[in-house]
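Help wanted!
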Amino acid sequence: MKPLILKGVRPYGEGDPTDVLIRDGVIAAIGSVDDEGARIVDGGGAVLLPGFVDLHTHLREPGREDTETIATGSAAAALGGYTAVFAMANTDPVADNEVVVTHVARRGREVGLVDVHPVGAVTVGLEGVKLAELGTMAKAGVRVFSDDGHCVHDPLIMRRALEYSKALDVVIAQHAEEPRLTVGAQAHEGEQASRLGLQGWPASAEESIVARDCLLARHAGARLHVCHVSTTGTADVLRWAKARGTEVSAEVTPHHLLLTDERLATYDPVNKVNPPLRTAADVEVLRRALAEGVIDCVATDHAPHAVQDKDCEWSAARPGMLGLQTALSIVVETMVRTGLLDWRGVARVMSERPAGIAGLADQGRPIEVGEPANLTLVDPDATWTVRGAEFASIAANTPFEGMELPGVVVATVLRGRVTALGGRIAE
Ligand SMILES: [Zn+2]
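Answered by r_m:
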């Protein structure tokens, strides 16, 4: 592979533009560099960040290749600035065994646009009844386990899962939703749901599980990761648990940082997601919790759906939204333009912390000589207009359709190889 020079880039958006030489997949020099025969990418003063890591991606393969495949999802990830994604286990068949997780990892390597890490299911068939073979899957390389889409609601199963996870040095990622409190739930329980006549999804259904699991994790001496935090109360619980030394980490989605249940007035199912869009007050709390580190990172919950599963009656629609190609822009809009995060902060929440939570050694690394060249180049001043039909994903269910957003991914580099450039997958 030819050496690569990123010319005129600003690591973490700091200082004057400089050059970065990449050789054999590693950052070889930073400063005034020279290498005849190197491929040159002109940065034009853009911000250089460590490649993004998404702890929460639904790639839908195997089983729903009509909505996304590992190939199309990997392309969406590369275009969104990602160098690693974690593929959720709620596929068909479920990734609750070594065969499926090995298949997903192998397909990811064959596509080669982003590191695809399979998430293993916590319980067999995501049914919440019997623990899956965590040890076998961990031996096959699985670092994160989750029944996402479902909550591991049985406290004894969750306790055992946490105990195993400690022994295996892996992490359990919980979709926190007490199912008895969300039977038939269609929208955030509150004024808007009442007005629209939609069955409510109470904040306490999330908060009670997060509180319980923080206590269980502490008791087991295990690490816990909380998926898609959506409420003020969950932020409070996390703050409390962290203050008393519980090893808990948490993610928030871009859509929960921007959108509120006011969007539901049109009954357009593109806004249906689980957990549901909450209130403006929640959005404000989530942004501040992310800035403070109470919430550790951003994860997309990228959830492609077929047209017939979204373009239908609200109650029949599947929950979920696309996220990979809009995440950075939503973070710029909600966190950078508001002054809540600088680019160091963006590197932390999009790359360093998610890599750390999952225990990835070669992602989320500092931009320094000798470090692996997993990098993302971002033009902070450019804007673009979201067109779901133009996404690399097969599905097009984006709630940001038609919005003009700030922040454009100029290039993505995976171990020294350009995977995306100027909005296109690099050849
Ligand atoms: Zn979930």
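OP: Thanks! One thing I noticed: The domain at 4-47+371-425 is CATH 2.30.40.10 (Urease, subunit C; domain 1).
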